[in-house]
Amino acid sequence: GVRGIARDVTVRERAQERLRESEKKYRSLVSNLPDVVWTADSNFRFQFLSPNIEGVSGFTLDEIYQRGTRLFLECIHPEDAGLVTGKFQALFERGEPYDVECRIRRKNGDWIWVHDRAISTYERDGVRCADGLLSDITARKRADEALRRTEEMYRTLFNGINDGVFVTAVEQGALPGRILQVNDSACERLGYTREELLRLSPRDIDDRKSWV
Q1: Quick one: DSSP state of residue 203?
Q2: Has this prediction a pTM greater than 0.85?
Q3: How far apart are the two ends of the chain, measured CA to CA in Å?
Q4: For the chain, which residues score pLDDT lower than 50?
Q5: Which of 51, 91, 186, 203 is deepest in the core (most CB within 10 A)?
């Protein structure tokens, strides 16, 4: 004859199915995020990287895992390397949030700006780890730089004009309101300081002050 034992494993199977579904949703979320998801330990070793790292860095996952974090550190701009390593150490040693913007060199040699951040650390299998996000912010940085240059050119032009120039708010009835900006020539010609003029509107200026 045959003797056997039957066990009801329905609860276990259901738990495993929920785990598989949860992992499937997580992989789907990570795969569709524009940001690179990473997990690293206190020794700066990557435990996990989402596949979209190739689109950002130009390096494949295999290349990165083979060369380890040494590859990442080599790609950081020399002027930013100290900031990145210092902030990363502070995350693990003092629990300070890791939040940096730095330049990295892609595989093709192009330099891009990234925003890298992690909030806290945790222990897994006896190893201290952190989860973070890395975003390509090159477009934003270029836009900020273009805006800065435009504003610098505007200030140079604004203050270089020999005539007095005002920028004012507009009150009801299209009347000029408080002075928002004034160039150096206006201050010199009117005999007011910049601080005094910025508290006035053109109508408040003493008529005894000459505009010529």
Answers
A1: G
A2: no
A3: 120
A4: 26, 208, 210-212
A5: 91
